[in-house]
Each structure stands twice: as structure tokens, then as C-alpha cells.
Amino acid sequence: MLAASAALLNIDVVVLDVGHNGPAKQVVAPRAPQLAHINGSFTDPEKIRELSAKVDVLTVEIEHVEVGVLEEVESKVPLGVHPSPFTIRTIQDKFVQKEYLRKSGCPISDFLRVDSTVESIRAAADKLGLPFMLKSRTQAYDGRGNFVIRDLAQAQDAIKALGNRPLYAEKWVPFVKEIAVMVVRSRSGEVASYPVVETVHKDNICHLVFAPLRSRDPSIASRAREVAENAVKTLQGAGVFGVEMFLMADGTVYLNEIAPRPHNSGHYTIEACETSQYENHLRAILSLPLGSTALKVPSACMLNILGASSDLSEITSFSEFALTVSGARVHLYGKSECRKGRKMGHITLVADSDAELSKRLRPLLERLPGGHD
Ligand code: ADP
Ligand code: MG
To answer: Ligand 1 atom 2: the closest Cα is on which residue?
Structure first.
């Protein structure tokens, strides 16, 4: 999606990823031999050095990269690395991220360091109460890094399930909604936020996103945007950031985590906002004027298309059905293999009202592979 946006602005993109035909590589045909994509891992230092030698600006769309090499090449790439390696390093370790954000004055609920021992988990339960969330500090995404401790008897299983990665514990947050805000930050540190959205997760994976936030109290949305903007202001480097938050029954907003890149909760911006998160990411890192973040439709939602099995034809036939729904736009990612829970694409739905949106969404939910409701 970033590459598609770049193509419209005549911005050449060189992609580092494994394989010859990953999703982004399918979108960009290099215009010259020196713009050829690189086959390799974004954790391979040599490959990152090779990429850095070819580009004017280097950016990431995943935070689990080899950040030490980004620090090394930062001063050699003419327009630098954005967001800054400092930001990526801080965010990569969720415990470090939370400490940083708390110190910066962001509203973060209780969390504490734990070791991978049953005793340490017991001590965390004494302080945080049960249930609490045990999280992997690193390499976590789509809930793969979280374990809900409801009973101390689960401690050993949790350590095993989280694969002996470094851990920390978070107090259970009994939120009424999960909300998110995309924030774009220019190279000079100016920030602009997108509308607040509600994110609905299923099995820890983002399932639906509704924009704008449906709420009787408009001060909630303005507070959430302020929390998100303030958090992103404390970071360094340009680009878009996805800020995930928890909304409590009394209207309090807690910051959950920040993604230093375009984010699933911002996919809706392609059809629903004046400037998509992707285009604004490019504008930000290239010092182009930032575009308006305003909604251009009254109501929008995004539905993730997750694999239900290894059967790719389920995805194809669902997408063909979606083509019959007014206001629906299908995005398939060109992934050659389907797996249960893998993000294969998404649908953005727009409508003139929330009521019309719900009507259009219903038949899609009924036919979603894997029988989501
Ligand atoms: P990921 O990197 O997988 O997105 P998150 O930390 O955002 O990890 O957790 C995934 C989901 O787990 C959240 O979107 C939320 O639904 C739930 N969750 C995370 N932390 C807590 C918490 N402290 N209390 C209650 N639910 C939580
Ligand atoms: Mg998350």
C-alpha cells in the first residue's frame, strides 16, 4: 500500500524483503537496474547496508528490524532513516517503550518487570492482582506475545508459550473499547492526527475498525487525539505512527502501545480520508507538505480478511462476494500462501451514515471465511 501510494507520486521504491515476489515487490517494477529490489531479511545487516547504499531515505514498515545497522547507516543515507532508529529501538522493546512513555508523562496503566520464573510471576500477581497480562517484551504482534494469567498455576505454561523471550507484566485493563489514532509527524516535529477509530479485536487480532469513533461525548475523541499527538511528539523522526489506546467506562484514556509505521487501524484512510496514512508517511519522510487528515465520508469501517485455513480459494470467493457490496473496496495483499489467522487482505466500507454502514457490513460478516460474527 505504501508502494502503491509512492507510484502515484513518481517516488521510486526499493524493497528489502525475502523472496522475489513479496507483496510490495509485486506493486513496484524497478524503473532502472540500480533500483532493483533486494532479496533478503530485514534483520540481515549486509542486506540493510546494501539497501541503504541505494536510497535517499530509508523507512520501515515493521519495527522488528536490525536496528543497530540502522543506527550505523543513519548518517550515510542522504535524508536519513525515518522514523529515527532511536524511536524504533525504544518501541521494539515494549517494556522500554512503556517506561519511556510513562516518563514522558503519557497515561500508561501499571506494569512491571518480571523474570521468566514462577516466583517472579507470583510476585507480579501479588502487586497487580489477577487476572493480569504477561507480555513478551520483544518480537510481539497480533497478540503473539501475550498470555493472560488468570491463575498462578498457569505460570509455567505461560513462560513456555512465550518462548523464553524477556517478559514483563501489565495490570489487567477492563476497557470498554479499544481505540486508535494515526498520527503523522513531519521532519520538523510538527504533528497532525487522524480521527479516532474504534478497533475490535478477535483472538488478539484486529478484526474491525470503525471510523469515526461512535460516542455521545465528543470530549473523548479530542482527549484521545491529544494523548496520541503528545505521545508521538515525544518520539524522534518523521512518518506515521499508530497509537493504540484503551477507553475506560469513565472516559479515561490509557495509552496501550505505539507502532512506528503505517498501521492496520489506519487502512481505512485510503478510501475514507483526504490523504491516506501511506501518502502522509511518504510526504513526512520526504519533507513534502503534509496532507489533510480529515474524513471525507460520514462513516467508514475496515474489515480484515484473515486466513481461516490453508485454502486460498476461500479468500478469493469471499472477495468476489465483497465486490457486490455497495461502498466496499477490496484490498488483497498478493500473499501466495494462506494460513489460519494470517492477514490476507482487507475491505474498506464507506457509507453516508452509520446505519447504512451497518447494513452493508452485515452480509460481509456473515460470509467471512472462518465464520466470524
Ligand atoms: P500486539 O503487539 O499483539 O498488538 P498488544 O499489547 O496491543 O499486543 O495486545 C494485543 C491485545 O491484547 C490488545 O489489543 C488488547 O485487546 C489486549 N490487551 C493488551 N494489553 C492488555 C491489558 N493490559 N489488559 C487487557 N487487555 C489487554
Ligand atoms: Mg497492539
So the answer is: 141
**Those residues with Cβ within 8 angstroms of residue 276's Cβ, 6 or more apart along the chain or in another chain:** 1, 5, 269, 270
Which three cell numbers mark 100? 519511556
For residue 58, the tally of other CB atoms under 10 A from its CB is 23
Please list the pLDDT of the chain residue by residue as tens digits (373 residues).
999 999 999 999 999 999 999 999 999 999 999 999 999 999 999 999 999 999 999 999 999 999 999 999 999 999 999 999 999 999 999 999 999 999 999 999 999 999 999 999 999 999 999 999 999 999 988 888 999 999 999 999 999 999 879 999 999 999 999 999 999 999 999 999 999 999 999 988 999 999 999 999 999 999 999 999 999 999 999 999 999 999 999 999 999 999 999 999 999 999 999 999 999 999 999 999 999 999 999 999 999 999 999 999 999 999 999 999 999 999 999 999 999 999 999 999 999 999 999 999 999 999 999 874 4
Q: Closest ligand 1 atom to the C-alpha of 140?
A: 2
Cα separation, 89 vs 79, whole angstroms: 19
Q: Which residue has the cell 512465550?
A: 162
Q: Assign 17 to helix, strand or coil.
A: strand
Atom of ligand 1 nearest to the CA of 143: 3
Q: Of all protein residues, whose CA lies closest to atom 10 belonging to ligand 1?
A: 143
The DSSP secondary-structure symbol of 56 reads S
pTM to 2 decimal places: 0.97
What ipTM score was computed for the predicted complex, to two decimals? 0.99
